[in-house]
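Structure (tokenized):
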């Protein structure tokens, strides 16, 4: 499974970004998908996850609840992370993962104050 994340960038505090992660090489609908992030000097943190299509349940870290939304489009084999009300502490490299077994290269998100 190959994963390609995109959508990162520089945004002011209070702004929004939508990250995308396109998957290929596997049966996308059967995999749980998730987003992690890692800020400089910090451990990688689980941000959000969504189970396989037959379930669709979601998980959010407390730090992003109410601000971030994870979703998936199985027809496009893509998972999204809509990030609203961004804060400087959201600044990190964001990684997508498939079942925590396959990882994409990260995309940088920088939130300025």
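Design, position by position:
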């Amino acid at each position: 499974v190959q994963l390609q994340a995109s959508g990162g960038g520089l945004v002011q505090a209070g702004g929004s970004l939508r990250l995308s992660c396109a998957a290929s090489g596997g049966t996308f609908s059967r995999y749980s998908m998730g987003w992690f992030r890692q800020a400089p000097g910090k451990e990688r943190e689980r941000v959000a996850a969504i189970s396989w299509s037959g379930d669709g349940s979601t998980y959010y870290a407390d730090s992003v609840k109410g601000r971030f939304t994870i979703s998936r489009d199985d027809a496009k084999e893509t998972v999204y992370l809509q990030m609203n009300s961004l804060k400087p502490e959201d600044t990190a490299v964001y990684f997508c993962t498939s079942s925590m077994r396959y990882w994409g290269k990260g995309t940088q998100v920088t939130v300025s104050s």
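Reviewer-requested clarification: The chain is about 0% helix and 50% strand. The chain has a mean pLDDT of 95.
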